[in-house]
Amino acid sequence: MNFNGKVVVVTGAASGIGAACAREFVNRNAAVAMVDRKAPADRVIVGFSQQSEAAVEYFRADLSSRPEVERLIPDIVRRFGGIDVLVNNAGIQRYGSVTTITEEQWDEVMDANLKSAFLMSKFAIPEMVKRGGGAIVITGSVQSVTAQRNSAHYVVSKHGLLGLTRSIALDYGSQNIRANCVMPGAIDTPMLRWAASLDSDPDRVLAACDRLHIRGKMGQPEEVARAIAFLASDLASFITGAAIPVDGGLLTPTGGMLSQETGTGGAGV
Ligand SMILES: NC(=O)c1ccc[n+]([C@@H]2O[C@H](COP(=O)([O-])OP(=O)(O)OC[C@H]3O[C@@H](n4cnc5c(N)ncnc54)[C@H](O)[C@@H]3O)[C@@H](O)[C@H]2O)c1
Q: pTM, whole model, 2 decimals?
């Protein structure tokens, strides 16, 4: 997986999975546009540049805003000459059910998680077509195909991202653009730590997150980034429209891991 000569755009690159993606692509010789609405620590970018000869640059944008995305894409093209890979990863986590959230809270999550990927794809795909094709990888979630309680807007946005993946794969396949969705389980990032901090006993939540997975440990951002890099690479040339769990087996057991713990399929839970 060598991305020499390729321009990779990573959204949500200031933190967590996105930052791990930026590192992964830089280490594989890509030119990387790190996009986020908050700044990464400068030393991160400097550190990347020193590690390799690849060019790395941070672009600030709120991806929920069409004017900002419309300005961002030409900026990236001016800097790097084009776009080959787009990793639509930016997102936020919020909690609530249909009756408890407000219309504004619904819009906030849809805009950050779903509209951002639509807007980035809308303005980046024409640039990819100019280069003869490219690859889009979208960070969905296990909640792209399942639901968690009290997370209605988040769940809907993540289901929507899978629909967006499949639509792009179908509509632009003839122009040599592949689109795939990764579906992470619980990954140890600032987002997950923030979610745990909402509980009176964050350590208990983190331990429960570990136990959701067959291996008994949650994922690291790098483990998702490697899957994203593979899907973005030519090694994945026959994979498009796919939803790939990167979840340590979280989606595997009937009834979830908790119902497996007694070995009797649920008794005693
Ligand atoms: N951490 C997990 O357990 C987990 C599990 C499944 C899916 N995911 C998904 O992975 C992606 C990355 O999550 P993470 O855990 O690394 O979170 P994170 O909070 O560490 O990083 C997300 C980044 O996205 C940026 N962002 C959010 N909204 C933005 C906007 N409108 N414009 C520009 N940037 C914006 C944030 O500033 C932040 O830097 C998200 O889409 C999340 O839903 C995370």
A: 0.96
